[in-house]
Each structure stands twice: as structure tokens, then as C-alpha cells.
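User: Please run a holo structure prediction.
Assistant: Happy to. Please share the sequence and the ligand.
User: Here you go; the ligand is zinc ion.
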Amino acid sequence: MKCPKCNKEPAIIHTQLGVLPGRKCQARYLRERIPPGGRRSVESRLREYATPFWKIMGLAPKPKEIEAERRMKWAGKTYLDVQRERLAGAKQTFDSTPLKRKLLAGKLVSKSKPTYEKRQP
Ligand SMILES: [Zn+2]
């Protein structure tokens, strides 16, 4: 049986789902499909994250939030500008990715020997 999509490669026969497209067509589908919510730019995501929660949910703002927005508008800024400033002032944090990779590969060896002592009652 040939792949129903391209009619070139052999189809995958699933015991419950039946005839499925071939391996190449499935790989292409996974590569090209648009994630849920659509493809979004970094800019639009940044704008969304900068927008306060109460505004997104349509809730009534607290006095503190009204005051913050008033100050922001007075300074002639938008929520995106404030978010950009916040990100610019973000602290560098320790990146544990290389360490984790080493650990998972089993290459992380401790130099000090563990000492097993009897706990004092
Ligand atoms: Zn195919």
C-alpha cells in the first residue's frame, strides 16, 4: 500500500488508526506544522508578556496598578518600554545547562571522597 499523501513511499498501517501517511510525509508534517496559537514573532510575545494580567483578563485594576499606569503614562512610556527596561536590568544568572549535560552523560565526577560517618545519637 502506497502513502495516501505522496503516493510514492509505503504507507504505515496502524492497527487502530488504519492507513497513515509514510514516514517522510509524517516527518514533513511535524516539521512544517504551525504550533497551537500560531507562529508569533518575538516582538508580539514580548508585548503580550509586558501587558499586565488584569488588563488581559479584563479585571478591575488595584489602586497600586492604577497609580503605576498613571506614572508610566506621565513618563510617556508603554508597558513594552517598561518591560524592555526591566529586561535590560536583568541580572546574569548561573547557566546550569553545560553542567546538566555533563551530569546526564555521566561525566560529572566528584573529586572529594564521600565520608560515611555514624550519626551521633
Ligand atoms: Zn508520503
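The pocket of zinc ion is lined by residues 3, 5-6, 9, 21-22, 24-25 (CB under 6 Å).
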